[in-house]
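Q: Hi! New to this. If I give you a protein sequence and the SMILES for zinc ion, can you show me the bound structure?
A: Yes, paste them in.
Q: Okay, here:
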Amino acid sequence: MRVFINDKAVEVPRGARVRDAVAQADDGLARLLDSAAYVTDAAGRAIDAGDAVGEAGSVYRVVVTARREGKPRLTKDALRRWPKVELHVHLDGALRPATMLELARAQGIRLPADTPDALAKAMLVRDAKNLEEYLQKYEVTLSVLQTAQALERVAYEFVIDKAAENVRYVEVRYSPLLHRPALTLVQAIEAPLAGIRRAVAETGTRVGLIVCAMRTKPPAESLELARVAAEYRSAGVTAFDLAGAERGFPARDHRAAFEYAAAHGMACTCHAGEGDGPQSIHQALHDVGAQRIGHGTRLAEDPALLEEVVARWRCA
Ligand SMILES: [Zn+2]
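A: Thanks. Here is the predicted structure of the protein with zinc ion bound:
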């Protein structure tokens, strides 16, 4: 007979338990019933998931909550299982240590450590004094990513790893400009797109690729990147970004690139308000038209701007 779980119709045999009906609708949700979720009837009354389903047409709702009976139920395991969206992650900051070592060996590059565990430790940043110091670690990852094959592989593995964490949609960013002169911009964009396509076919996780211009590079290169990236808009490049050391490298210098990207249908985001103050966020929003701010950790220093961002924009 047919019952409904969160508006989804499922067929269960008469006498089946509510838990079985939930599992039919969503296996992951059913697993949460022992920890972070519970079931209610159509009127919102909590019921035991071990009870038999009622008559045909019964409606049940599964409520996911971090707390139940006063005890915190939000565990790492539960977080891992929940379907998620991730909007801000850097491809060149998300390599598997074992892959880094393989790529380095194949290319004759020296890394700070020789085993995956030691390398993971060596790449961990705990005490960076500023954004510039933190960004130095990217020189290590980028050193092994100067071939199309390496970029394809890390993009593929990245999506596989995200899917394993039950991330259903992810936007991942990197700068094609940091793969020159070894690769052309076209090669540096097509390689990760190929890896992403391969992983999407295997996992079903949806992926948007964001290309980052660099504040520290000449604005002409940003415009060049915007022009090439716009050609790949329908192939998976969803947005244009600006990243890198912030202080002394204002976003407004790159306005032409943002304007080109926006005029050609790309969404625009901008790292701002981390290595510099909230005025940098203001500039990103008002001078170059960013629809989303990256990092933005110093936003709270300007309460009026904070209010404006909450009302009109997004941070991720
Ligand atoms: Zn970022």
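A: The pocket of zinc ion is lined by residues 88, 90, 271, 294-295 (CB under 6 Å). Let me know if you'd like me to explain how to read the tokens.
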